[in-house]
């Protein structure tokens, strides 16, 4: 089973940018769709973005479309989430994990284990 470690979070002002990284273990990473999720204080965890195993297909939650970009480097077993134009509503703990693939497309249905997450705080 894949294991994940997220990094790159921090405190950023509104309008700022951050790039999150998701490092995965095990060689089966190349065959797995990966998703980013976040959990704000007092709220349920929600899907943010996902990317198919070859990186051809991506999907985004409406709340982040046009501001976030997901990418992956299979040679490094790493998935990235570039976040820009951040707002306080983007504050939360960000997680990555394997997600269900349906007809070669990624979904934001988690099927892997959860890592420790990385905290993103958007505040002035």
Strand residue content:
over 45%
**Rg:** 13 Å
- The total strand number stands at 11
Helix amount? under 10%
Largest sheet: 7 strands, mixed
Averaging pLDDT over every residue, what do you get? 94
Secondary-structure content class = mainly beta
Order of helices and strands: EEEEEEEEEEE
Shape: globular
- Taking the alpha carbons of the first and last residues, their distance comes to 40 Å
Summarize the structure in words:
- The structure is a single chain.
- With about 120 residues, this protein is mainly β.
- It contains no helices and 11 strands.
- The protein has strands at about 5, 10, 20-25, 35-40, 45-50, 60, 70-75, 80-85, 90-100, 105-110, 120.
- Strands 2, 4, 5, 6, 9, 10 and 11 form a 7-stranded mixed β-sheet that branches.
- β7 and β8 form a beta hairpin.
- The radius of gyration is 13 Å and the shape is globular.
- The model has no long low-confidence stretch (mean pLDDT about 95).
Task: Write out key terms for the chains shown.
mainly beta; seven-stranded mixed β-sheet; four-stranded antiparallel β-sheet
Topology of this protein?
Elements: E1 4-7, E2 10-12, E3 18-24, E4 33-39, E5 46-51, E6 58-60, E7 68-73, E8 78-83, E9 92-102, E10 105-110, E11 118-122
Parallel strand pairs: 2-11
Antiparallel strand pairs: 1-3, 3-8, 4-5, 4-9, 5-6, 7-8, 9-10, 9-11
Short summary of the structure?
By secondary structure, the chain is mainly β. It is 0% helix and 52% strand.
């Amino acid at each position: 089973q894949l294991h994940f470690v997220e990094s790159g979070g921090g405190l950023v002002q509104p309008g700022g940018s951050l790039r999150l990284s998701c490092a995965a273990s095990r060689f089966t990473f190349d065959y797995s769709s990966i998703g980013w999720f976040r959990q704000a204080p007092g709220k349920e965890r929600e899907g943010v973005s996902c990317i198919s195993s070859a990186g051809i297909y991506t999907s985004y939650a409406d709340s982040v479309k046009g501001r976030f970009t997901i990418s992956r480097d299979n040679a490094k077993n790493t998935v990235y989430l570039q976040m820009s134009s951040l707002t306080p509503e983007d504050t939360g703990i960000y997680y990555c994990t394997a997600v269900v693939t349906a007809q070669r497309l990624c979904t934001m249905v988690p099927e892997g284990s959860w890592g420790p997450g990385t905290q993103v705080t958007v505040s002035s």
